[in-house]
Each structure stands twice: as structure tokens, then as C-alpha cells.
Amino acid sequence: MVAAGLFTRSDLAILGKAASVAELLTQKYFNFGDNEWKRNPYAVFTRKYVTKNLYEDFAFANVIRYGGKPGLDKIEPHAYSYGIVLQDPVILLELLRSSERDLWTMGLFVLTHELIHIVRFREFGADFFACAHDRDKEERLVHGITRDMLSGMNHMAPILNHYQGCADEMRAERPS
Ligand SMILES: [Zn+2]
């Protein structure tokens, strides 16, 4: 059982700034307009605000989708709203494991990765309910894009190298 706690208020302030940078990077990478994330807002939740069926003990975060109607995604992925659930204890425990990790860098890595998933679901027809094989493929693709965006940033190399192709640690893009 993961024993690390929940994010503090100052942790959340750091993650909020990391989210802003992740938004800018994804806008630029995908050639979206400046207000992409204002037009298509997403929600960020932490454990305090979700029910236990959205807890993950081995993933840093998961993407959730809500609204819309069942079976509609093939036709209109824009009909859904998307959100990111940050798994506080898993991220905090990871920071304790290595002095090479800090919350800013981990937060930017995780949020950028999850925003790319949302773009892939919404704009590129990635299947929210893909089978394990296709999900692994999607994870590798998303990680490759994450690497393209974040390579060269301070302290990012050890994180990008450690989690490459390690889909199990970034899995859990599933609804409740
Ligand atoms: Zn992922």
C-alpha cells in the first residue's frame, strides 16, 4: 500500500504552473491556436476530489472522460469532457525514491503526457477503450511525443529515460 500522503497547497501551486507550461507546449507542438485549452477546457482532480474507484496505486495519473453518450466517441469525440486525475501518493512516493526527481519536473512530465492523451482522444481518434495491445502502442506513441516536447529541459532526461516504454507505470486511462 502506498503510504505517501496527499499534495499540499504549495504542491498544488507548483502543479498549476506545470499545467500552464504543459498547455503551452502541447498547443505549440500540435499547431493549435493560443486559446486551445480555453476552448476545450479539461479538469484536474487529485485524490481528495475523486471516489476510490478512480484511485490507482501504480499510475501517476489517469485520464477520465465524462458527458456525452455511450458509443458516441467514434462519431464525435468532442462531445465528451476530459479530465486528469493526479494520483498524489504515487507521485509523492516517486519523489522520495530518487533525488533526481522534483515535483516541478515530475508534474510537467505527467501533465504533458496526459494532455497529449487527451489531444489524441479528441483530435486523432485514439480509442478510449482500446485493447491492451493497442493501448501499449498508444502509450509508446504518447511517450515519444512527450520526449520530443520535453527533451533538453532541466532535470528531465532521467525521467524521460526511466519511463520510456514503461506503459504500466503510466497506464490507467480508463473511465470509472
Ligand atoms: Zn499514458
Secondary structure elements and their pairing?
Blueprint: H1 9-29, H2 36-39, E1 43-46, E2 61-66, E3 81-86, H3 88-97, H4 103-123, H5 132-150, H6 157-162
Parallel strand pairs: 1-3
Antiparallel strand pairs: 2-3
The protein binds zinc ion (ZN).
Zinc ion binds at residues 113, 117, 139, 142, 170, 173.
Textual characterization of the structure:
- There is one protein chain.
- It contains 6 helices and 3 strands, in the order H-H-E-E-E-H-H-H-H.
- By secondary structure, it is mainly alpha-helical.
- A 3-stranded mixed beta sheet has the order 1-3-2, with helices on one face.
- Helix 4 (103-123) packs across helix 5 (132-150).
- It is globular, with a radius of gyration of 15 Å.
- The relative contact order is 0.17.
- Mean pLDDT is 86; it is low at 167-176.
- The site of zinc ion (ZN) has 6 residues, from helix 4 and helix 5.
Distance between the termini: 21 Å
What order do the helices and strands follow? HHEEEHHHH
What ranges have pLDDT less than 50 throughout 5 or more consecutive residues? 167-176
Please state the CA-atom Rg, rounded to the nearest Å.
15 Å
> Biggest β-sheet, characterized?
3 strands, mixed
- Spatial order of strands in the largest sheet: 1-3-2
List the ions, cofactors and other small molecules found in this model.
zinc ion
Strand segment tally: 3
Separate helix tally: 6
Structural class by sheet pairing and helices: mainly alpha
Strand content: 5-15%
The residue-averaged pLDDT reads 86
The helix content is: 40-55%
General form = globular
